[in-house]
Predict the structure.
Amino acid sequence: MLNKKKRCAGVLMPISSLPSKYGIGDFGEEAYKFADFLHDAGQSMWQILPLTAIDEGCGNSPYSPPSAFAGNFLFISPEKLVEQNLLTEQELNKIASKFDFDKNPERVDYSSARKFRIQVLNHAWENFKKGSMSDFTEFVNRSNEWLNGYAMFSVIKNNYNGAAWYDWPEELKFKDKKALEKFSASHSDEIMRQKFYQFIFSTQQSELKKYINSLGIELIGDVPLYVTRDCADVWLDPGFFNLDEDLNPVSVAGVPPDYFSADGQLWGNPTYNWKNMERWGFLWWLKRLTNSFKRYDRVRIDHFRGLIAYWSVPEGEKTAKNGEWIDVPYEKFFECLKNNFTEMPFWAENLGIITPDVEAVRKKYELPGMLVLHFAFGNPADNPYAPHNNTPDNVIYTGTHDNNTSRGWFVEDATEQELKNFSAYIGRDLIDEFIFTAEITRMALSSVANTAVIQMQDYLRLGSEARINVPSTPSGNWAWRMKKDAVSNELASRILETCQLYGRV
């Protein structure tokens, strides 16, 4: 594992954004090629977005997972299934011929990718059952604490046309033992098939991570703080969430009013019952993070401040105005993490208005925070994001997955004053958005922050058409894909030279 205090650089590039023949980026050949590109470019880190399962009803957001543990089967590579002798090329091509994945190769086609992979994986499952299942059985036994419940949850949901678990028949909603045993017995093959999906996901992802690590590159993952209400974990362990006796939320998460929003932000996720979490030795969190470190070398914790105190809004409120801050037993929680993860390989997403106690925890456990240059130039003099105010114990970005690309920010989002300040800061006028993108990228790499991570779109100098996410918009996000031949040896050499110049190789 890299030294936290060593200067290094990485690239933010979601798996979904990789090129592929089947509607969405996956763990196949293009992922290995991108890892080679990062190696040639002298990069030490590949940061991705959460690999957890996604829900079409939540806009396919990786930050609204139906499970905190299960992997997204859309990332399974069909070509790898052929290599694993679970499909023949003829079988794969026959299924693929029913779909048109070429109509817009620069956008993820979630609907077709999902239908296609279900057909492919179901076919592979039938082939798989004819051979040895020893590795599968070992995986199931090793993962059973979360896998059995998630598989049951998924199959029940499928059998009730995608209905949320709190709208299921009472005996299933409340997990009546006899009702679950009866359902399990009559749907045993479907349940095993869901476990097979997770086995293949785990196998392919582990192989990719092993290859990435062999190149001297760390894989940086992301852990959303909250889960959605219609989530396997809430159904399976309702005591870890603030629910009433009918399993309805007592309070939901959000953030209070600020200068961005007079009403605050009402996210609607059920809040955690931290008293019960503490009573059980924070076991759910330990399992969740242990599972994450099978997939990643380090993780960024989204909305980190919610682990110190969280904004709790009574269920039924229309805005986040009438909430209150509730303290988390954070000293005990972080000591528990320290005892179980001695190197504390976490990054803290500490953007926005952060109180001193949040920063005190971050610094006590030597957790890198985040700096975003798009936020730096309204008034740079005392702005913590401006390079002259940066400190080494941070990860600096041009922008994150929630920001526009730098070119898009220049054209669409930046105020006249911000661009004027930026020009004054670098000591020359900005000719166009391409020069701006190059300058802000160089600014991140030259920062004193120990780690610099650049969106791949900024290296490619793409505009807002390549933006990953626009917060608070319910659809159209998480869909950008890179062109197949976008990366080159020339680009890798250019990135390498710049990173060498600033001591990041």
Notes: The chain has a mean pLDDT of 96. The longest strand covers residues 218-223. The first helix runs from residue 29 to 40. The radius of gyration is 23 Å.
